[in-house]
């Protein structure tokens, strides 16, 4: 292993509960009950992508831009004031940084949301690059997302590890040739078997990464 791509939400940041409820609660406020399939589909998207999806799929009487703005305020406030790191996240990032192992962030969250959070936690210094779904115009269930991440940072996919909590990302990264480590998050309790079988390794504690690679 020569380089690492970290996911943010559910991997480094304890934020999946907010994301899981955001779209569902917003649609409920407009009288729309969605299926688990629709909810899962939206987890692969950025907020802008899911806003367009909501408009087209559920025919909301709003533009995608209005839907996005409504949800954006909730997400921005969460990252600015409430979002916390998962246990051991800073310790692991600092250890890899000191060992000169290059890292990047690959996330579905827009930069304007996570920027104050990363600044608050002094995390920008750890990453060679940051890729977002909106920035690449790619969802994380597409292997091209991870190949483009590697290209951005100068990583060799065959020498790169993805640490992520999402099944669709694990599958896509594996198809792209990366080694995959699934990080446990309670939001994915209903898919533990699939996550364990699809990833090269399953962990429930970020600090385990130090024992594996250092």
From TrEMBL:
Does the entry feature the keyword Hydrolase, yes or no?
yes
> Is Nuclease among this UniProt entry's keywords?
no
The protein's superkingdom reads Bacteria
- Tell me the keywords, alphabetical order: Hydrolase
Q: Name one Pfam family in it.
A: HAD_2
- GO MF annotations for this entry? phosphatase activity
Listed NCBIfam families: HAD-SF-IA-v3
Please report the name of this protein according to its UniProt entry. Answer: HAD hydrolase, family IA, variant 3
Species name: Peptoniphilus duerdenii ATCC BAA-1640
